[in-house]
Amino acid sequence: MPLQRSLSEISDLDELKNNLDDCGRCSLSGSRTNLVFGNGDPNASLMFVGEAPGFHEDQKGEPFVGAAGKLLDQLLKQILGLNRSNVYIANVLKCRPPENRDPKPEEISACKPFMLRQIEIVDPLIVVTLGNFSTRLLLDRTVFISKIHGEPIIINNRRVFPVYHPAAALYATKTKELLIEDFKKLGDLLIEADRDIEREQNSKENKGEEQLDLF
C-alpha cells in the first residue's frame, strides 16, 4: 500500500498506523493474523522497543501480551512504579515472523522507517531497546546486548537505554537478575532526564526575563 503522505509529514500515530494497516512491504504480511503497531501513552517520556510480535501478540494485535509482557509489566510496576498507560510499547517488526524466528534484514528494512517515525512522534526522553535487534536498529551498528546493556547512549539528542529482552530472562535466572538491575538504573535515568528538562525550562524562563529587563 503506497503512503498517503510522506512519513515526515505524518505527525499522528493513528495516521501512521493507518498507513500500515494493509501493509504488504514484506512477505510477513501473508502470514500475519494482525498487524501489531504499538500502544500506550502517545506522549510518554519512556518508550520500549522490542524485536517482533509473538504468537499471542499476533492473535491480539497488541505488543507484549504473552509471558515476556507479564514480566515487563512486573518490572514496570515493582521497580518504576509505572504501568502500561504511562509508557509506550512497540516492536521493530509489526508482523510476527513464522515460528518466532529472528527477523530477516529485508523485514527490518521494510519496517525501519515506520519504527523511527513512531519514535519521533512519541518523542520520549528515553527509548529502552529490548534485546539485540532494536538496539542495533537505533544505534545503526552491530552490537551485542550482553556487552552494552544497562549503559545509556545519546543518539540524536535522545537517551537510548539497551537492556535484555524480557523473553531472554524468563528461564535464565542470571539474565533476569541483570534485567532487574538495569531497570533500577533506568529509574535513576528517568529522574536525571526529568531534572535536565526542568533545568532547561528554567534556563529559558530566566533568559526571557533578562530580555524583558532590557526594555
Provide structural commentary.
The chain is of the alpha/beta class and 215 residues long. The protein has one domain: Uracil-DNA Glycosylase, subunit E, CATH 3.40.470.10. Helix content is 47%, strand content 12%. Strands 1-3-2-4-6-5 form a 6-stranded mixed beta sheet, sandwiched between helices. α3 (67-80) crosses α8 (173-213). The longest helix has 41 residues, at 173-213. The model has no long low-confidence stretch (mean pLDDT 93).
What structural category arises from helix and sheet content? Answer: alpha/beta
* Oligomeric status: single chain
The low-confidence runs, each spanning 5 or more residues with pLDDT under 50, are: none
Helices and strands, in N-to-C order? Answer: HEEHHEHEHHEEHH
Alpha carbon gyration radius: 18 Å
How many individual domains? 1
The overall strand count is 6
Total of helices? 8
List keywords for this structure.
215 residues, alpha/beta, Uracil-DNA Glycosylase, subunit E, six-stranded mixed sheet, 8 helices, 6 strands, 47% helix
In short:
This protein starts with 12 loop residues before the first helix and ends with a helix. The protein has helices spanning 13-18, 55-60, 67-80, 105-122, 132-139, 145-148, 166-169, 173-213; strands at 39-40, 46-50, 88-91, 126-130, 153-155, 158-163.
